[in-house]
Amino acid sequence: MQQRLHVIYHVHSEARTIEARARAIAVEQSVEMPIAAIEDGLVRSQIVGEVEAIREQTVGLFEVRIGLAQETVGQDPGQLLNMLFGNSSLQPDVVLHDVDLPPELIKFFAGPRQGIDGLRRRVGAYSRALTCSALKPQGLSPQGLAELASRFALGGLDYIKDDHGLADQVYSPFKSRLEAVVEALARNRLQHGRSVRYVPSLSGDLDSMRDQVAIATAVGLDTVMVAPMIAGLSNFHRLVRENPDLAFLAHPGMAGAARIAPALLLGKLFRILGADAVVFPNYGGRFGYTLDTCRLLARRAREEQGGLQPALPVPAGGMTTARVPEMLDFY
Amino acid sequence: MQQRLHVIYHVHSEARTIEARARAIAVEQSVEMPIAAIEDGLVRSQIVGEVEAIREQTVGLFEVRIGLAQETVGQDPGQLLNMLFGNSSLQPDVVLHDVDLPPELIKFFAGPRQGIDGLRRRVGAYSRALTCSALKPQGLSPQGLAELASRFALGGLDYIKDDHGLADQVYSPFKSRLEAVVEALARNRLQHGRSVRYVPSLSGDLDSMRDQVAIATAVGLDTVMVAPMIAGLSNFHRLVRENPDLAFLAHPGMAGAARIAPALLLGKLFRILGADAVVFPNYGGRFGYTLDTCRLLARRAREEQGGLQPALPVPAGGMTTARVPEMLDFY
Description:
With about 325 residues, chain A is α/β, with parallel strands linked by helices. Chain A folds into 3 domains: about 5-110, RuBisCO large subunit, N-terminal domain (Alpha-Beta Plaits), CATH 3.30.70; about 115-250, Ribulose bisphosphate carboxylase, large subunit, C-terminal domain (TIM Barrel), CATH 3.20.20; about 260-330, no CATH class. Chain A has 13 helices and 11 strands. Chain A has helices at about 20-30, 40-45, 75-85, 105-110, 115-125, 140-155, 175-190, 205-220, 230, 235-240, 260-270, 290-300, 325-330; strands spanning about 5-10, 50-60, 60-70, 95-100, 130-135, 160, 195-200, 225, 245-250, 275-280, 310-315. In chain A, helix 6 (about 140-155) packs parallel to helix 7 (about 175-190) and helix 11 packs parallel to helix 12 (about 290-300). Strand 9 of chain A pairs parallel with strand 10 (about 275-280) of chain B, so a sheet runs across the interface.
């Protein structure tokens, strides 16, 4: 029996078009091409997403359940996100609402290694709400943050975490900050006998985060914070697998990325970070980008920008050969 | 002279409240705490975000320009995204519209290493639009995809890229796929003398992507695709820095993540990937999450889910001590 992910989307649609729209999402999140053009029988029967149910919630809003083949995801968290919403995240009428994962995939990801019990045990608090506050503002020195941490600890907090803005800045380098805070808390613990945990925020690429984990564990810390949507889900999960004894606090930073202007994110930022070409959904195709959005995005990718080389704009997404002349003219 | 990032947000607001709202965004994206509580003079003058301009665009929609200190970003792309929109991405009235980066930051990121020229040179096409199509559907074997690639090449395409859904699946492992496609294209090139480039899609964590880069370069490829919002911007940039001779194609997958239900992304997925605690914006605070959203998120984090340990829900975001009893009751 083939394993499937059951994905729930909320779709704004008219009643007369919802069935076609649901099938389009099932295709978008699986084979991403017209079914009629698929020659392989196994792909048609096993890999193509399947609309399992459509239910009207209110007038114009439907709950659509789609089954996706587990094989398309493999065991990679980034690829999971990709298959759940990679392309549909760009379509304005769809909300990714929920998913049921096959048991063996959940078993592989394996969830919290410490969980609520481990977090309670760390601070010796078993039957009440835990408390946590953030070291801030951004800009204080390690000593300034350490003094603040001491005051937090004296006030009785269980967990003291970095503000998610604290990274490895010149005014408060990661290593100096951790050493200063840990020393201040150790002093405090000696005086008052309280358990308190400091939770540094990890940032940067996977190697940087690994270096930071090494620094944290070297000074005796056992709990860290990551923003998975910034780190990338695959890297977050890699850290979790590599450090089963650490507790991970997930920060929601960037969990609302849809509202970044495409011309900025794709046309400017990806280029500045080194993209030689940027793929984006063409206007008038399957996605909601307007003509003006595409024009601006293509301009951003190529216009003068600090002496950088231009990046190649690559309009994509259900285009037809009939539109090629128009697109050549437009771009 | 201190370097600043100049960030443009589009904000839905009434005219009488826009000044306060703009200041709130400037604070949210810098020190994230009440200015009055900041004792350090340098932090107040240098680090706190500054509202530089407010301009009404249409009734109820304002363009707000905010200056952020470059020191808060350092040189990390993930931290850049964090400071630009990390928290504000969770607020429904704000769109991150544009940013001007300080020249030295742009110089460090350094943009495309190959750019349009390098991409044209690869395929020997200097004065026309380049062509590119994607190998699909998902589910075909390496041989099936290689045959398709041959047909694409015979049809005259410049670039043949993996569908962004192709990763390292059992039905088409990355290494086997690359070897099969490269062999098919090499055969074709011998017969027809055309330049054509195959662009494999990288996936997984940074180490996996590095392994894939090694496989790609070993079979003679010089162009790859990454979805930076899935890989994490820092990891994407790391790959770019490590491989200055490769051309990188950026895929927009997940560039529209705001429309993922918070209960799913934060409450369920982060947990399944190993978060021991999930921070989320509490209802009635500075963010737009409703009471029902928070209830569901907290339930997802703790309910039975494939035998996993529960994750600790951590409501956060501008809460007051006066609300503690209510919150204890609610959660």
